[in-house]
Design a protein that fits this description.
This protein has 330 residues and is α/β, with parallel strands linked by helices. It folds into three domains: 32-148, 3-Layer(aba) Sandwich (Glutaredoxin), CATH 3.40.30.10; 151-239, Alpha Horseshoe (Serine Threonine Protein Phosphatase 5, Tetratricopeptide repeat), CATH 1.25.40.10; 247-329, Serine Threonine Protein Phosphatase 5, Tetratricopeptide repeat. Helix content is 55%, strand content 10%. Helix 6 runs antiparallel to helix 7, helix 11 packs antiparallel against helix 12 (261-273) and helix 13 packs antiparallel against helix 14 (298-310).
Length: 330
């Protein structure tokens, strides 16, 4: 995640606490493989391997076959362009290269008479192609024609990874969630949900200073998003709770003085940041049952702030909102 294209200043992604890495897979393909690295998208083939490497693979996604030779000058111009665009396609197509000097029979059968020549195979059959060292824009158009535009596919993949990351975060697999959020941020540095999720992971690991640093580095237009604002409020609640005293002392005080609403409010705020949401909500509802005028209905307002941070689908929100409604409208 570090680098000049990262709008958040590289405060996360490449590593987190020496453990969390921003590597994850969309399906079977790695996110954002660097151009020229090959990865799983580019390989060489032979006459014997052509059926497996091209015909069989083309039943999974389009396969481009680059027919080339070491003596071919235009081939040397086209090959790096092909590799770059195929890598950036992130698995929508594969590139298989065949040296026609070493393996002349296949290009002969296909009627290849000049090189470089690129033939596209889909479902085991040649469907399209081009010859010559065409510009990068034309290669991109060729791939988009075969596999469809990249945006929709990547958006669906990213949403799937975000859903899985959210699930892992809910299940307290913090490291797994952080790896997935980091991978999304590597592919889409301005993804608000991934940025918010990464900060939630930092908070869950007790790295509130790093979460605050990341929050401060988020661009102003993204900082106004609901998910980012929820993280900001959570950090504010954590900082406030640190100044509210010892929860054990507050519980002792309440045992002696059950109507000490100020102590109960402080305890609710501390329990909230400790993750004890049901207990925190119960203390605020208790204040409301006893004295709605306390702090100008402050217990209700505080509970609504909790809901904003917990989210509408959180079980604690659903339960406490139901009890709040009964209390307000009974």
């Amino acid at each position: 995640m570090s680098g000049s294209n990262n709008p958040y200043g590289g405060s996360y992604g490449a590593s987190y606490g020496g453990q969390m890495t921003a590597s994850a897979n969309y399906g079977s393909q790695p996110v954002a493989a660097p151009a020229g690295s090959g990865g799983n998208h580019i390989s060489d083939t032979s006459t014997a391997g052509f059926a497996k490497d091209v015909l069989e693979e083309s039943r999974q996604q389009p396969v481009l076959v680059d027919f080339w030779a070491p003596w071919c000058g235009p081939c040397k111009q086209l090959t790096p362009v092909l590799e770059k665009v195929v890598n950036e396609a992130q698995g929508r197509v594969k590139l298989v290269k065949m040296n026609i000097d070493d393996h002349p029979s296949i290009p002969g059968q296909l009627g290849i008479q000049s090189i470089p020549a690129v033939i596209a195979f889909v479902d085991g059959r040649p469907v399209d192609g081009f010859m010559g060292a065409v510009p990068e824009s034309q290669v991109r158009q060729f791939i988009d024609k075969l596999a469809g535009p990249a945006g929709a596919d990547q958006a669906a993949e990213i949403q799937g990874v975000l859903d899985e990351a959210d699930k892992q975060l809910d299940e307290d697999d913090i490291q797994g969630a952080a790896q997935l959020y980091g991978a999304v941020l590597q592919a889409d540095p301005e993804n608000v949900k991934a940025a918010a999720g990464m900060m939630q992971c930092m908070i869950a690991m007790g790295e509130t200073a790093r979460a605050s640093q990341m929050l401060a580095s988020i661009p102003e237009n993204l900082a106004k998003e609901v998910a980012i604002q929820a993280v900001a409020r959570k950090l504010e609640q954590i900082e406030e709770a640190r100044q509210l005293g010892d929860p054990a002392a507050l519980e002792h005080d309440l045992a002696l003085h059950p109507d000490n609403h100020e102590a109960r409010m402080k305890l609710a705020k501390i329990l909230n940041v400790q993750g004890m949401r049901e207990e925190a909500a119960e203390h605020l509802l208790t204040i409301m049952r006893k004295d709605r005028t306390f702090d100008d209905d402050g217990a209700r307002r505080q509970l609504l702030e909790f809901f904003d941070v917990w989210g509408p689908k959180d079980p604690a929100t659903i339960s406490a909102r139901r009890r709040l409604s009964s209390l307000l409208f009974s």
